[in-house]
Amino acid sequence: MTGFARAEGRDGTVDWIWEAKSVNGRGLDLRCRIATGLEALEPELRKAVTARFKRGNITINLRLLRQIGTPQVRVNRELLDDLIVLAGEYRGAEGIERPGLDGLLALRGVIEPVEMIEEDGDCAARDKAISASMAELLDELSLARAAEGASLSKIVVAQLAAMENLRRRAGESAALRPEAA
């Protein structure tokens, strides 16, 4: 059956979005696109999908969006001090303007971003939350497929009833015709 499902989640630094699409198919064909760094979730995902679904072409995507707060930076004071000394050496040179602090700070390497290092406990908690939202995604996909199946069932039953009615009417009208000599 066809269906679509979406599940989202968030922790302190990351938002994640699961999306699943399913179309009819004879066997079960699963395609996964998992965000970089979370490839270890794929075997768990494949196991969960094969436990729930027997047929269909299913595509599942997991995207991560890192929340960007105020970036942390540090000033490379050693480099800045060297640049100030160098600028002082050329103070009296003709045609050279003395650089301001803003100009020195704008040079590459003077201001460096500080990388945030995640604790292992934070990663484990987030991975657990992402796995839980994966289960929600598969529940939603299962419900969407069941709803589509129920809708199709009503249509097929109505068409079969209409065909039976036409067959019955055709049989009745044939009975009224005189036999050919």
From TrEMBL:
InterPro entries on file: YicC-like_N (IPR013527), YicC/YloC-like (IPR005229)
Any one GO molecular-function label of the UniProt entry: RNA endonuclease activity
Ranges for domain Endoribonuclease YicC-like N-terminal: 1-153
Pfam families: YicC-like_N
Protein name: Endoribonuclease YicC-like N-terminal domain-containing protein
Native source species: marine metagenome
